[in-house]
Amino acid sequence: MSALPLPGRVVLRIGPVSGAVPVRAIVVGAVALAAALTLAVLSLGRGEFPIPPSAVLDVLGGEGTRAQRHILLQLRLPRVLCALLVGAALAMSGALTQTFARNPLASPDVLGVTGGAAAGAVAAIVLGGVSGGMVGVPVAALIGATISATLIYLLAYKRGMNGFRLVLVGLGVGEVLGGLTSWLLVRADLVDVSRATIWLTGSLAGREWNNVRPLALALVVLAPLAVAAATALRVLQFGDDTARALGLRLQTAQLAVVAVAVALAAVAVSAAGPVEFVAFLVPQVALRLCGGSRPPVIVSAILGALLVVGADLAARLVIAPRELPVGLLTAMIGAPYLLWLLLGRTRRTTA
Amino acid sequence: MTARLRARDLHLAYGDTTVVEHLDLDIVDGRITAVIGPNGCGKSTLLRALGRLLRPASGQVLLDGKQIDRLPTREVAKIVGVLPQSPVAPDGLTVADLVMRGRHPHQSWFSQWSRADEDIVAEALRWTDLLDLADRPVDALSGGQRQRAWISMALAQGTDLLLLDEPTTYLDLAHQIDVLDLAARLHRERERTVVMVLHDLSLAARYADILIAIKDGRVVATGAPEEVLTPQLLAEVFGLRALVVPDPATGTPLVVPLPREAVPAD
User: Fold this and answer.
1) How many CB atoms lie within 10 A of CB A159?
2) CA A150 → CA A118, A153, A170, distances in Å?
3) Which residues in A have their CB inside 8 Å of a CB on B?
4) Of A20, A244, A294, which is closest to B113 when you measure between CB atoms?
5) ipTM here
6) Closest partner residue to A245 among B82, B118, B123, by Cβ?
7) Closest Cα of chain B to A333: distance in Å?
8) How many beta-carbon contacts under 8 Å exist across A and B?
């Protein structure tokens, strides 16, 4: 028997470990990673007290002046790390959701994460007053996201799980939560409303190490799970019957994929608010760049980090010295892309 | 005659709608079995239950004497392959990708593409004459090629039993023959036990060793095509008036349907 030629893929075999990795995915991933790190260094240097990239690298290498070290390590690094981690988490969550729902237009929003987190965060800001500060809001967002995602899963469960029903129930619950959030905002006083609005747009301003630590810890656990889920995803993307016939424990696999997707989105949203379109947009861009039949999880993560760190840098440059919420920029990139994607799809089906 | 796959007092239902009742069945090893019956009689439902895709309302499907829905999914998938009716491949999936998926029950999260996987997939592609199309997207293939790609995937899965739900649907006659010849070769050269749901009775009689006729969720007749395909049975099961004559090519029963009003020639 001769080997099977697999053009465009590198076959790796080390002991019992084996895999066929697309070359394009490796190249795209490497380039995006380099770009994300470059932007991160540039972003660290920007601010009221500009620091050249070489000095930034010195500080990261353990040198630099005391003032530089304080500004970079205590003030700016948490924010940039937050941007990288939030982008990676949202994009991975989107890649899992879109494959699970077999729908390129799905995003973790339909799993109730965003709506629940928003309701939780706004409730903390409006009802909690001053005490519901920067520590309380992420926790409230996380709780809100978990409750609403669980509720949606239970409502959508009827003798098994169905991706389409999940999306419909998710949209319904999302509307209810949106109403709840609006009601809270209408009742709130003006200061709370403006704080809530900034949170609802998605912002990285003022992020500290206290925000980075839980996010990093969650990703250490969740990212390997998301990558491991890819094995199930490549079978899950077929119809239910085919997936079962290929030996997938469908219910368990679906629950595991949804749980990881929800957890990733929930920790990201609780850290930075709902940074719009990242989860929806990045997996589709990754798919188009890498080719294949479903969004690649690892490349999505890298591109997500790149998009959010880039958008955060741009958000501080556009109307400097003031800054825009990062979610506004990702939305401005994402919305036209959504239109383009919808138009492209319609054209293909009518052709 | 041995049978690894059996059904005992099987009841199948979708919600409150009972589709199959009191069904006992043995799938004889190393033979081609065709399941025939009118639309809505429960053929496909039965095949899904035999392949563990549908949990019985009551009764049992037994694989090697064990209740199939108590066996680990992955272990079942190494013994029984199922090709659902008109399966859909995701956009952008190539033929090679599709056939590679057949190895899923044999892979783990760290072993994704072993030397054995590669050999078996290459062989499955060659055997179904798809090597030249390996890099083509599945959705760019013709209907006949697509069905061959799915059968190639089932072959790569390496199961002793193969259940095909209407593998010839939507294919023109020439491609129907291609697919059925492929199934016959699987049985002859690979010693697979093949179960097919088929609509064309004459083709079923030509390709199958055993026919199972089903009406309203019950087995009406089972046996060699010559025993099962009689004018009486066709009238009873399908409500069809027909002549049954020897197929000039193979000698197997050939069903010649008669118009509702016409008088039989005899």
Assistant:
1) 7
2) 16, 5, 11
3) 1-7, 11-13, 16-20, 102, 228, 231, 234-235, 237-239, 241-242, 244-249, 287, 291-294
4) A20
5) 0.89
6) B82
7) 25
8) 104
Q: Render pLDDT for B207-253 as a digit per residue (tens, 0 to 9).
A: 999 999 999 999 999 999 999 999 999 999 999 999 999 999 999 99
* Closest in A3, A16, A246 to B110, CB measured: A16
Q: What are phi and psi of B242, to 5 degrees?
A: -155, 155
Residue B198 in tokens: 């088929």
Percent with pLDDT over 90 in chain B: 85
Backbone angles phi, psi at A36, to 5 degrees: -65, -40
The whole-model pTM stands at: 0.90
CA distance B229 to B213: 9
Strands of the sheet containing B58-63, edge to edge, are B17-27, B5-14, B58-63, B66-67
Q: Between vectors from CA A157 to CA A153 and to CA A162, what angle results, nearest 5°? A: 95
**What is the mean pLDDT of the segment spanning A146-172?**
83
Whole-angstrom Cα distance, residue B232 to residue B67?
36
Tokens at A163, concatenated: 């991706």
Q: Is the pLDDT of residue A348 over 70?
A: no
pLDDT band at B160 (very low <50, low <70, confident <90, very high): very high
**Buried-state track B158-182, b at ≥16 Cβ within 10 A, e below 16:** bbbbbbbbbbbeebeeebbbbbbeb
Q: What does the alpha-carbon distance between residue A325 and residue A203 come to, in Å, rounded to a whole number?
A: 5
Say if residue A187's pLDDT is above 90: no
C-alpha distances (whole Å) from A24 to each of A9, A87, A278, A290 are: 8, 21, 22, 5
Is A242 in Cβ contact with B117 (below 8 Å)? no
If you average pLDDT over residues B63-82, what whole number do you get? Answer: 95
B258 neighbors B251 (Cβ within 8 angstroms):
no
